[in-house]
Each structure stands twice: as structure tokens, then as C-alpha cells.
User: What shape does this take?
Amino acid sequence: MNFTWFSQVAAVTGVSLRELPSRWVSSAVAVFGIAGVVMVMVGILSMAAGFRAALSETSDPRVAMVLRASSTSELDSGFSREDTLVIAESELIARGEDGSLISSELYVVVDVARKSTGTSSNVPLRGVKPVAMDVRGNVRIAEGRMFSPGLNEIVVGSGARNLFAGLDVGSTVTWGTNTWTVVGIIEAGGGVPESEIWADLHSLQSAYRRGSSVQTVRARLASEDDFQSFKDSLTGDPRLNVSVIRERDFYADQSRLINGLITGVGYFVAVLMGLGAIFGAVNTMYTAVASRMREIATWRALGFKSSAVFISVMTEALTLGLIGGLVGALIAYVVFNGFQVATMNWTSFSQLTFAFAVTPGLIKSGVLYALLMGLIGGLLPGLRAARLPITVALREL
Amino acid sequence: MALVEVKKLSKEYKRGVETVHVLRDLDAAIPEGDFLALMGPSGSGKSTLLNLIGGIDKPSSGTIDVGGQRIDNMPERKLTQWRAQHVGFVFQLYHLMPMLTAARNVELPLLLTGLSRSERKQRVAAALALVGLSDRAGHKPKELSGGQEQRVGIARAIVSDPSLLLCDEPTGDLDRKAGDEILDLLDGLNKEHNKTVVMVTHDPHAAARAKRTLYLNDGLLGTEPEA
Assistant: This one.
């Protein structure tokens, strides 16, 4: 390969690309076929990405969760007040302005009607103290105010407020014999608390007759690296029978099944649709080669190498793939990114709200897949162009 | 001295189960500096012979020697390179790249030579001047008349200074006046620049401008037209 070879490739490819607009109809078929595949693929995978992000990626790695040993969810965990006091003795827990950043929490599930269908769904109602916000670190009041301790007041996650009925600030809701007033909306960077409703721990314990028991304890560690020591100190303490896990890993475990399912479906659909798009691209490139037969024969007759012709066809196919990929990713971003939905979290038997997340990584994957479709689509037509008998092609009208 | 020498040259095509013999054991020699017109009825093998001499087709048997080099058994890659250096093609329908200007079209064969941009520019200007189209250098083919397009085609054929010009019906798509201008050009290239010209034509008027004419009938070459 030498300089003249690159000149040949540049010349043939340059002419091929400049003629692209004259073949816009067949080119558009390939572009939109590929764009459709990328849009669907990125759309489905953005659901998995959003679900994953909501469950684990927004959780601070310094937050450790303490559950009763062998518990697989917050619902089947439980601690007495004495247990929580032992846990709070750890010196590895970070300290805030008002003391240790440790949050004992009660977790129940309540029925709330969906705005869209009116059907009843399970929504987590979590009893916490105000310190729960500092323990998590990413929760903030977006509207209204925090509940007052001792009162039947609740703050609602922004996702839950958007998808479920009657959860706006100022509304009142009744679960069982208790009526609660919504006083604020919380946001948590897209994380789990946005799917939840938070009430004062003591008010909730009282309403659900739980005495002073709680189900989980969350602790914010002074350092991410302290986790193993914190875990060892609690699991080795003869007064306790606990398991300790990072909150991030706890949620990651919960998301694994659904995340795997959605991702699998996403790739399966993308591969199936991709085959269709590849046929479209092959057809387009065969049409392009057919319409360029005399031109290709002229290049070859003038002494241009068939490899230069092959690369020009491949470049055109890759260009169409790239345009299709970018168009598909752009449409997916506009249509799906931030689109909020709720789904059942089968571990906690409650609804989890999350937003589709069209991440830069997904866009990159979509565009790379589009280029792969273009590459495969251009291969056979490119070889045909390179092997075209010059004398036959020169006679083409 | 013969620039082109073909011996026992045969070309066959398969058409279904039938074998079509286009050229049969043909012998011919074209001296350097010749201006040869090839005539014959449609399908007689004129263009096939031209394509074989130009190395864009392969014979079924026989040998083709051009400028002392056997090209009938030359590997495709080497043949491509050989074409770029030794042969200029002029096509009936010009085969210019519609998106490129006349100058860029003429420059194309020079992209295979490794010449610098300024050298290429000089050569292109000289070739366009030779065909009388200096003032049309920046025009695209659709902005030129048929005769002008063919002159650009000739400039492209001679810009890399090949010894052999192969012209397939160069006036076939032109009116008489424009055709005569093209023939004048080919005549000048032959006489003044010592280019060996082989021209396929149906037109006796065009053939009359050549130094000699050969006729192809039933795959055989002769000096007289078919009776």
C-alpha cells in the first residue's frame, strides 16, 4: 500500500459520496431501516439502563445496609431497639451535625391507585427519621417541606407522585385507619427513594403497631474502604445476628433478574430487526453498485485498483450506517430519555418508578451496531463491484 | 517496429450451451505511430479486440504483446498498473465523472502516478490546452456539449502520456461537425505527438481519417470489407 493507493481510494470514494444525494431514495431506505433498529435497540436498553440506575447506580457506596441474617429483602428483616443501639456503637459510622449518620427504618407496603389506569399498586411506605436524608446523601426536598416528627405527615418521591394518584403536596391519603397529609416531594437523583413514600418512623411504628421494632438499619460509613471492617465487626458481634451489604449491591442484586431480562430482550430484538436492516442495506448497496456500474468500470479501465472500488462501496455503506445510527440514537434520545414508568420489584413486592436512560454508552453501542449493519450490508455489493468485468460494465446504460 | 502484436488470438463466450466464437486465431501487428481504424458489422468483435489490446479483457487463447510486454497472461493487479501507464481509453459515451469538473476528470489518471499536486496541475492544463478546452477547466460535464465532453475524454486519455490510444466509437455519439473536430484531434495526436491510435468505428467517414483500415468479419481480420 502506498500514497497512490490512498489517492485512488480518496478519489473513488469522494466521487461515490458526492453522488450519494442522487441515490437518495434507496439510501433513505437503508438509513431509516438502520435508524429504526438502533432506535428500538437503544430504547429497550435504555429501559434496562434506567432500571439499573434507579436501583443501584444512584446509591452512595458508603451506605451500608444491615438486615437480619438470612433476610433477602427489607420485608422479612427485623431488629429490636436493642439491636439498633448495638449497631450504632460502631466507630466506623460517619458523624453529622446531629450525631451518627445511622438510620433505623421500617418498611411497609401500601395500596395506591395508578394515575393512568386507576388500578391499585403496591407502593413502599418507609418509616424514617430525618437523618435518613443525610445517611443516603442524595435525597433532597424538591417541593414543600420534610415531615414533622410525631405527626401523620408524609413526603413522597417525585416518581411516585408522577405515576400515582393523590400524592401531590397538600393531599391527604388514608391507609387502614390512618390518614396522612402529603407535605413534601423528595428527589434522589433518580434513585429508589423517588419510588417511595416516607413517614416519621415513630408515627409509622404506632400506626402499624410495630412497637419500637424496625426492619433495617442504614449507616453511612466514614469511608468507602471501611465497609469490610464494619461488616466484620457486626457479623462477628455475638450480640447480633445480622448480614451487612452495601446498599448499592443490595439493589444491584434486586435488579439483576429484570435487568438481564430486559437486556436480553433488547439484544434479541435488535439482532432480529438488524437482520432485516442488513437485507435493506445489502439491497441499497446493490442498487448503488448497479447504478454506478459504468462509473466503476471506468475507474477500473483507467487503472484504478479494484480494492479502491471495494473501499468506496464499503465507505458508502458505512456512511449510511453511521447516518442511520445517529438518526436512530437521536430519535431514541428524544422519545425515550427521561420517560418515566413503574414496574414491580419482585423482591420487595412493590412498585419501582424509574426513567429510561439513553446514556452515552448506549448511543455508542447503537452507532457501533449501525456501523456493523452497514459493514455487513456493504460487503457483498462491494465484492461484486470490485469483481465486475470491465467490458460488461462499460456496456451498461 | 510493431507496438502491438497479436498471435493466434481467439475469444469465445458462452451463451447458454452455445459457444460464440468472437475472434478466431487472429494475427495482427500494429506499428508504432499507426492510426488504425477497425471496422466491421455489429458483433464482429471490433470492441472485443480493442478491449483485449487494452488489457481490460482476457483472450481465450493466443498472445497479446504490447510494447514488448505480454499482457494476455499478466496477473490482474499488474495489468491494472500496466493499463494506467501505457494505455489511454476514449469511450463512445465519454464516461466522465459527472460530479467532477473537466480538470478533475482529466487529473484522475495522474492520481495513479505519484506526481505532486503542482505537477498534476501543469499536466492537466497542458492536456486541456491541447484539446482546446483551457477555458472549460472548471466546468462539469453537464455544462459541456457532447463534443467538448469527448475532448475532455481525450485529454484524460493522453494526460499520463501513454503510447497507445484506444478509441471505441469516439465520434459515435456526436454530430458530423463535432465528430470532425474529434478526428482532427486524434489525427494531430497521431502525427504531431506520435501516439499510436486504434479506433473502432462504424463510420467510413471517420475511418477515412485513419492511415489504414482493417475489417473484422466472423472473427477474422482482413483488409477488405465483407462482400
User: Anything to note?
Assistant: Chain B has seven helices and ten strands.
